[in-house]
UniProtKB/TrEMBL annotation:
<keyword id="KW-0732">Signal</keyword>
<keyword id="KW-0479">Metal-binding</keyword>
<keyword id="KW-0349">Heme</keyword>
<feature type="domain" description="Cytochrome c">
    <location>
        <begin position="28"/>
        <end position="128"/>
    </location>
</feature>
<keyword id="KW-0813">Transport</keyword>
<dbReference type="InterPro" id="IPR036909">
    <property type="entry name" value="Cyt_c-like_dom_sf"/>
</dbReference>
<protein>
    <submittedName>
        <fullName>Cytochrome c family protein</fullName>
    </submittedName>
</protein>
<dbReference type="InterPro" id="IPR002327">
    <property type="entry name" value="Cyt_c_1A/1B"/>
</dbReference>
<dbReference type="InterPro" id="IPR009056">
    <property type="entry name" value="Cyt_c-like_dom"/>
</dbReference>
<keyword id="KW-0408">Iron</keyword>
<dbReference type="Pfam" id="PF00034">
    <property type="entry name" value="Cytochrom_C"/>
</dbReference>
<keyword id="KW-0249">Electron transport</keyword>
<feature type="signal peptide">
    <location>
        <begin position="1"/>
        <end position="23"/>
    </location>
</feature>
Length: 131
């Protein structure tokens, strides 16, 4: 058995491990998400009295069509994006808002820490739409 034939199974195993770790997103911790949300709170609100200010309020954001809150003036790009916010689309947007929705008004460079994104999503899941 030559060296390259011995490396094949090892390379395949490493590749499978890498792919599966990227496919599964971390579960997230709502308490850590609350701490991480502090950086968002200058523009966004959540909770029973939340309203849109510099950014849209985020109650019920998961499952909501992007650019549809009546009390916020979204960018034309966001209104036309066709995105429905779910775990994957929100994570992608948090990683790189400008790449996800070119022309967005979001003023965030992006979050590169997957754990922080998972924590933020866990925190936001706690806030259904306010009736």
């Amino acid at each position: 058995m030559n060296r390259s034939s011995r490396q094949g199974p090892v390379v395949a195993m490493l590749l499978a491990t890498t792919l599966s770790s990227h496919a599964a997103s971390p579960v997230g911790d709502p308490a850590a998400g609350a701490a991480a949300f502090r950086m968002c709170a200058s523009c966004h609100q959540v909770g029973p009295s939340a309203h849109s200010v510099f950014g849209p309020q985020l109650n019920g954001v998961i499952g909501r069509r992007a650019g549809t809150l009546a009390d916020y003036a979204y960018s034309p790009a966001m209104r036309k994006s066709g995105i429905v916010w779910n775990e994957q689309t929100l994570a992608r947007f948090l990683r790189d808002p400008g790449d996800t929705v070119p022309g967005t008004k979001m003023r965030l460079w992006g979050i590169g820490d997957e754990r922080k994104i998972a924590n933020l999503l866990a925190y936001l899941r706690q806030y259904p739409p306010v009736k």
